[in-house]
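Reference record
================
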Amino acid sequence: MKKIFTILLLVSGVAVAENLELELHLTSYHTDDDGYEEDNYGLGLAYYFKERWGVSGGGFNNSYDDTSLYLGLVYSHDLCASNEFDCAIGAIGGVVTGYEDHVSRASDVWPIVLPELKLGYKQYFMKSRFFPDLGSNASSALTFSLGREF
């Protein structure tokens, strides 16, 4: 876990001069109501090193009320863009922690691929990601976050 935060710090130091996104993870909506924690507060940081490609990482309180850390590669494709508004679809693929005690097939570091939708106004944005149902004691969910581009 310390390695993930070290990588985030290195990336954030480089990213200030380029295209950086700071994201506040807020909530999720689960498709079934089995007492999941839907206040999933946390912080994320993304550095786009090419027009559509970036690296992202962060931490949040997951649906089982445990801390999760993630690190992944991001792809984003613009659907619409103007001087003030933009929308994009994409995905993040990487690894996440914090589910090993709750989901039957999860390990300490678990691979993920999550599709995402981004809606933006000027430098501010809202993102929603889809987390699929991954087996017993799990539920598919939509996550929601707010952020700012720098």
Notes: The helical segments are 2-15.
